[in-house]
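Target protein
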Amino acid sequence: MAQRLVFLVLLSVATLQAAGCSASLFKVKPVTELPALADSAKHADAGGVTIRVAPLLTDEESQDLFEANLPLSGVLPVRLELRYESGVPVETKQARFRLRDTEGREWKLLSPKQAISRILKANGVFAYNPHSRKQFEKEFTAYALDVKTPLSANDSTHQGFLFFQSPTNRPVESVDKLTLTLERLPQTATIDLN
């Protein structure tokens, strides 16, 4: 009887560990569920590339997409689309994205991994299954804007998020006016986000 009980306990622990290996730290919605950018999205032309920017996510929308409140982590997700219009292919990996507020402070562009580290730190997540973190990184990174692949007639649209860290390294509370500047494209483009 005791051996049977020990076997059942060990089987339960092994099952829980196997299930934990495939689970993500946060439940991120699949990218395919992200609605298309509205036709009314703000836009600018950068010489053969059209940049469209979605309105900033609310805390609730951030929570719904990533199961994490990114603004509470000091991370501001900015969703944009780069659309190839004409001409020669455009290298986007050299592009520079700058975000400034009304006080002239520049917000630091974060890689998805840096944004994830800030999210985990803000949520006090220090002990976790490494497989769960890898799964979260994979799901979260799927939302990032692809700037490595050039825009061309064959690959004409790149859509995703850029992640910016607040200049104070504190939670993003209220944002009066932000300006996004894209440099090192055929032309520099500037868009007021709000």
Q: What stands out?
A: The longest helix spans residues 2-22. The two ends are 68 Å apart (CA to CA).
